[in-house]
Specification:
Helix content: 10-25%
Catalytic activity: 2 reduced [2Fe-2S]-[ferredoxin] + NADP(+) + H(+) = 2 oxidized [2Fe-2S]-[ferredoxin] + NADPH
Protein name: Ferredoxin--NADP reductase, chloroplastic
Shape: globular
Strand order of the largest sheet: 7-4-9-2-3-8
Order of helices and strands: HHHEEEEEEEEHEEHEEHEHHEHHE
CATH superfamily of the largest domain: Nucleotide-binding domain of ferredoxin-NADP reductase (FNR) module
Distance between the termini: 14 Å
GO molecular function: ferredoxin-NADP+ reductase activity; poly(U) RNA binding
InterPro entries: FAD-bd_FR_type, Flavoprot_Pyr_Nucl_cyt_Rdtase, FNR, FNR_nucleotide-bd, FNR_plant_Cyanobacteria, OxRdtase_FAD/NAD-bd, Riboflavin_synthase-like_b-brl
GO cellular component, one term: chloroplast
Structural class: alpha/beta
CATH topology of the largest domain: Rossmann fold
């Protein structure tokens, strides 16, 4: 499906996979150093290029680069450390009418054979020209014409970035996306109708190394990871590809040796997927559990393999209910809570939280209002 894109990328509407419509709010401080002028990012890219090994050599083995941490519990050094300087996130460096031409580095299927549908991890080379922060999104403009506007390009589709600002190669030159291929099946015949498949998700999942890709952004502030308190608690709730921003958070917290930042708090991830084969980045998350048992918790809800306490399918809200007392106490003590995934996840979660609050003799509406006021409540659904 095609939808309209606002030039400032404040609200881009889309409907499938990790493509979505969002309006985000601010909670990062301003500073005299800013990403929001291209000369800054260009000069950074210039300094990076002096040490660049060309594409083919630099990205000759994606799997090895992405799995550096698997071999050792020591953290990985990152560069360029200038990416830590601004306290103002980069925003809309490239807009739909002035998009950036990046290159595909790799496309890898990241779900098992029994997963319903296909999800791919896609690494994109921006050569340092499109910096971003964890929790932000890129816009992608698929090639071809907009069927509703002949002669015009397709509208922008937003995708949460699934890597830290340093990328999967820790050099500040790539970004990664987690994309589920959107396939349409005719409800009467049960057969796939390629004419109604998701244009952008299929373009991305079918891409080959070296292919060009038009990128806009970065955009978004509501999912930025607050780092003013290194001992904070972050409760992350995701369904499917909604885990993308959390992969970025967790790599920053546990995998990367980030200058002047040492995380000593708690990161607690709840991930809801259909079955074991649908789990995304499970090796990485399991590694954090092993290496940082005091700082990381990971709870999975496998709807087609597990039952909730009422005998129904186990959804992410059932896991939240299971730990509701602990979650409410953490929120009362200032924890941040994040939600990312299909918008259909929110009604069930809200109903669960409201029921738990009432059981505790609290007003959920008043509590939610306070969480929003305190900037503890972060929602990005599509």
């Amino acid at each position: 499906m095609s939808h309209s894109a606002v030039s400032q990328a404040a609200a881009v509407s889309v409907s499938i996979g990790n493509e979505r419509s969002l309006t985000r709010s601010v909670f990062k401080q301003n500073n005299s150093i800013s990403f929001n002028t291209k000369p800054w990012s260009s000069s950074l890219a210039l300094t990076q290029k002096t040490s660049t090994i060309r594409d083919a050599k630099r990205y000759s083995n994606t799997t090895i680069c992405m799995s550096v941490q698997q071999a050792s519990s020591s953290k990985v050094n990152v560069s360029p450390i200038e990416l830590e300087d601004p306290t103002d996130p980069p925003l809309n460096l490239y807009k739909p009418k002035d998009s950036y031409t990046a290159k595909i580095v790799s496309v890898e299927r990241v779900v098992g054979p029994k997963a319903p549908g296909e999800t791919c991890h896609i690494v994109i080379d921006h050569d340092g020209n499109l910096p971003y922060w964890e929790g932000q999104s890129y816009g992608v403009i698929p090639p071809g014409e907009n069927p509703k506007k002949p002669g015009a390009p397709h509208n922008v589709r937003l995708y949460s970035i699934a890597s830290t600002r340093y990328g999967d190669f820790f050099d500040g030159k790539t970004a990664s996306l987690c994309v589920r291929r959107a396939v349409y099946y005719d409800p009467e015949t049960g057969k796939e109708d390629p004419s109604k498949n998701g244009v952008c998700s299929n373009f991305l999942c079918d891409s080959k190394p070296g292919d060009k890709i038009q990128i806009t952004g970065p955009s978004g502030k509501v999912m930025l990871l607050p780092e003013n308190d290194p001992n904070a608690t972050h409760i992350m709730i995701a369904t499917g590809t909604g885990v993308a921003p959390y992969r970025g958070y967790l790599r920053r917290l546990f995998m990367e040796n980030v200058p002047n930042y040492k995380f000593g708090g708690l990161a607690w991830l709840f991930l809801g997927v259909a079955n074991t084969d649908s789990l995304l980045y499970d090796d990485e998350f399991s590694k954090y559990l092993k290496d940082h048992p005091d700082n990381f918790r990971f709870d999975k809800a496998l709807s087609r393999e597990e039952k909730n306490k009422k005998g129904g399918k186990m959804y992410v809200q059932d896991k939240i209910e299971e730990y509701s007392d602990e979650i409410f106490k953490l929120l009362d003590n200032g924890a941040h809570i994040y939600f990312c995934g299909l918008k259909g996840m929110m009604p069930g979660i809200q109903d669960t939280l409201k029921r738990v609050a009432e059981e505790r003799g609290e007003s959920w509406d008043a509590k939610l209002s306070q969480l929003r006021k305190n900037k503890q409540w972060h929602v990005e659904v599509y």
